[in-house]
Target: Helix-turn-helix transcriptional regulator
Amino acid sequence: MDLGNIIKNIRKQKGQTQGEFALSCGITQTYLSQIESNLKEPNLSTLKSISENLNVPLPILFFLSMTEDDVQPNKRKAFQIVSPSVKSLVNEFFAV
Model:
C-alpha cells in the first residue's frame, strides 16, 4: 500500500504546500512529511481529516494506494487488468 505517495500527489495536484495542508488537517508539517514518505501510519482520525481536506473519500484513498502486494496472489492477474481502468475512472470522478 502506498498511501503516503497518493496523499502527496493529490495534495500537490491541488496546489497546496505541505505546510498549508498540514495546518488545514491539524497536524504538523513534519508529521505530514513522514506520512507522505510512508514512514508513519496515521491514525483513523488523521486519515479522515486528510481525506476531507483532499475532498476524496477515505475508501477511495485506500483503493488508489493499493498495489499488487495488497492483493491475494490468486487475484493479482484480475487486479492488473481492472486496476488501471478503475483508477482512471476514480481519478476523473474525483478530479484527483
In short: DSSP finds six helices and no strands in the chain. The chain has a mean pLDDT of 92.
